Amino acid sequence: MPHVEQTIVIHAPVALAWERITTLANLPRWLDGVAAVRALSTAQTQPGTTFEIVRAGQPDAEHWIVLDWQPQRSLRLTEYHQDRHLHLRLESLSEGTRLVARWEWKASRGLFQRLSPPTAQRRSLDRSLERLATLIDGERAR
Q1: Is pLDDT at 142 greater than 60 in this prediction?
Q2: CB-based burial, 47-72: b 16+ in 10 Å, e otherwise
Q3: What is the pTM (predicted TM-score) of this model?
Q4: Which domains does the chain possess?
Q5: DSSP H/E element including 17
Q6: Residue 80 contacts by C-beta under 8 Å, 6 or more apart in sequence?
Q7: E strand intervals along the chain
Q8: Residue (of 80, 76, 70, 97) closest to 13 by Cα position
């Protein structure tokens, strides 16, 4: 599967980073392009939680599920119609939390798409992680 992966350090404890990442209502605050989120199965994020994401400028909602849930360690969200995955792995550091984010998607059938670098996906992941770090670091500074 094609993918991009980025690592950042968030200057906050793992527990705080985990709480901000896994609260569905926070997704539009940090996940690039997300305008709104609506819980379908339960408002509390846990394994099996299903939710819809509405992206800015897109008429149809995306349907997501929490597939992997290891509290304060890792999380995998999957968009099950388009076979896209967001893996997040957290690790405690003396200066805060290392977050490794991996975005995967189904390979396109077109040759050009398969040979082109995933520039748009990398930029989107970069923006998401920058926004997440700002969200967590900003709240912690208050």
Answers
A1: no
A2: eebebebbbeeeeeebebbbeebeeb
A3: 0.88
A4: 3-32+68-141 (3.30.530.20)
A5: helix 14-22
A6: 63, 64, 65
A7: 3-10, 34-39, 50-55, 62-70, 74-79, 84-93, 96-104
A8: 97
How many of the other CB atoms lie within 10 Å of CB of 120? Answer: 10
Q: How far apart are CA 86 and CA 109, in angstroms?
A: 21
pLDDT digits (tens, 9 = 90+) for 89-140: 999 999 999 999 999 988 776 666 666 667 889 999 999 999 999 999 876 6
pLDDT in tens, 4-55: 999 999 999 999 999 999 999 999 999 999 999 999 998 789 999 999 999 9
Q: Please count the CA atoms within 13 angstroms of the CA of 133 that sit on its side-chain side.
A: 18
